[in-house]
Design goal:
Layout lengths: L1 H5 L6 H12 L10 E5 L7 H7 L4 E5 L3 H13 L5 E4 L13 E5 L4 H8 L8 E6 L1 H5 L7 E6 L4 E6 L4
Length: about 160
Amino acid sequence: KWNKIHSLTSYNKEELFEQISYTIEPIQYLPPIQEAIDIGSGAGIPGLILAMHMPNTHWNLIEPIQKRYSFLNYAKLKLNLKNVTIIPKRVEQITPFKVDLITSRALKDTKSLIELSKEFINKDTIMLLYKGSQGVEQLDKIKAKKQIYQTEKLNYIILKEIHV
């Protein structure tokens, strides 16, 4: 309904359901998480979807674009998600706080994303990235322990012990 009016995503219904499925798949590879941020939450993929499936994790969805921020607020209220905070700013404008998990999808290349989020990273922070084949190629320059889970269409990249 929102997408027809506000063009939140270019996915059609079938593609959207496929993306939701891809979003929840890597949860099985994560340890228990207390605090997470999703940078550039957009239409809620992956942050909003993960928040629904990880109710014991507090999610901070970072989205500076007003129409997307408004949609995320609407969805949060409609779904009664008590574990979600939506932040209407760019990540660079937020007072940093340490988190257990950082997610992002299609926002920046991996090295730039680490640089962008470095103030949120501590020694135990994990990054979960959803990337195509190019995302795997970007890992050569990254100093972190890397786990890659490949599917037909998407790679789940988990970074631990991230050196910033």
